[in-house]
Amino acid sequence: MTRSEGVARLALAATFVTALVVAQVLAVKILALSLPVDLPVVGGEIIVPAGVLAYALTFLATDCYAELYGKRPAQALVNVGFAMILVMLGLVWLAILAPGSPVGVDPDLFARVLAPSTNIVLGGLLAYLVSQNWDVLVFHRIRERTGTELLWARNVGSTASSQALDTVVFVSVAFSLAPALFGIGVALPAGELLALIVGQYLIKLLIALADTPVVYAVVGLVRSRRDERGATPAD
Question: Which pTM was predicted?
Fold first, then answer.
């Protein structure tokens, strides 16, 4: 592996982990995105976590990583990302539980902002494990059929299906199963659950379609550098 390709590989991994951790922090804020017209199920606005864009960036990074370096390295990256979420949560809770000084931010306010609800954490972690591993699996299943052609089909197909899984698992666990089974969080009525799932998926699907040119650009750039130097792809 050349030095430039090593830097590109590190940059993709760093982008993935950074976006993943940032998405967890931003998820405590909920956005209400107004629509120009009312849509079936969701109505006149879409409710999504503020981390939706950062989280969508993780799928772009894993698709680029999987295309350039293979299935097993991409799965390893997903597992490392999961571990980093746990590290992030541990560090956040250490900061919350440590005694605060009146000189800084009010400790209660700090805790309310940074301590995500347990139901959100459970839903997010389970959704992450299911959707990211599915993304890598589907990406390579499509690649087995298309070879090196039709990168757009691999990107859109894997991301669209994995984002659907992610949304259904996250919303169902965080706002239905966790409150019902463990008494944590707030259980939403079926109609609100469906609206939340459909609204979030619409935003994620639009982002998945928009990121396809970026995937082509990143993969094309790395491969052009590899070809110029006569380097072979990593295993």
Answer: 0.83
